[in-house]
Amino acid sequence: SAAQSDFQTVVDDSWHAFHSPITLLNSDFKVLAMSSREDLGEMDEEWRYLKENGYSSIQAIKDINEDRDWLRKRSKSDAQRFHFSNKKKLSNCLSVSVVYDNVIYGRINVLEKDRMLNEGDVQLLNHLSRGIAPYLNLYYVNHLNLSSHNVFYEMLRGRQPDRRAFENRLGYKQWMDSDTFMGMVIDFEGADSMMHVCMEQLDSPIL
Q1: Any residues with CB less than 8 A from the CB of 101 and at least 6 apart, and which?
Q2: Model confidence at 200: pLDDT above 70
Q3: CA 130 – CA 134 distance, rounded (Å)
Q4: What are residue 16's DSSP bridge partners?
Q5: pLDDT, tens digit (0-9, with 9 covering 90-100), for 95-146
Q6: How many whole angstroms separate alpha carbon 136 and alpha carbon 61?
Q7: Is the sign of the CA dihedral 123, 78, 13, 49 positive or negative?
């Protein structure tokens, strides 16, 4: 299914391994797929927002970025456990970046709902992220008319980014259209993947 960019089927099939809600987001926090069998009435507020809007809420990203546990663990390559305080109204979860050729293309989250997640789930999630990574890369290579994995990277390449993704990205950073911005372009002469890596590194401290 991943080879056909059918990420919804990948996520739904993965439910049988985890028996827990799963989301696949790109690095602009846009939903690529989420478990279809979950009852909205049983899920947290962020899940319902994702289902209705197709993007992470600005409040959720703000709450996550204020969480020291998240800031400390999010850059690690393997799946990590996250425990959020009840006041943030976010479910505890396992989360892992989807990385291909040193570029982060998205993130998979497995929410802790009806059972405690364990070390076996960590290993399964690592396997899933590595398996789906090359196909997520191909998805963007073959769909250049769609929003890429990073709106700022698109803009540096002279492409028009998806307006909704761009507005959300500003909101996640608590930036305004009226703010003054400074751009920087670094040319590596053919090393296109290096540009991806630099964009991720420059972007990561404020995501």
Answers
A1: 137, 193, 196
A2: no
A3: 8
A4: none
A5: 998 988 888 888 999 999 999 999 999 999 999 999 999 998 888 777 654 4
A6: 23
A7: positive
Work out the number of other CB atoms within 10 angstroms of the CB of residue 143: 11
Residue 89 has pLDDT above 90, yes or no: no
The residue count for the chain: 207
Q: Identify the residue whose tokens are 């690529």.
A: 32
Stated pTM of the model: 0.73
Q: Which of 166, 198, 197 shows the shortest CA–CA distance to 181? A: 166
> Tokens 């600005």 appear where?
58
Listed in sequence order, the residues at least 6 apart from 182 whose beta carbon sits closer than 8 Å to its beta carbon are none
Q: What residues have CB less than 8 Å from 141, skipping those under 6 apart?
A: none
pLDDT band at 207 (very low <50, low <70, confident <90, very high): very low
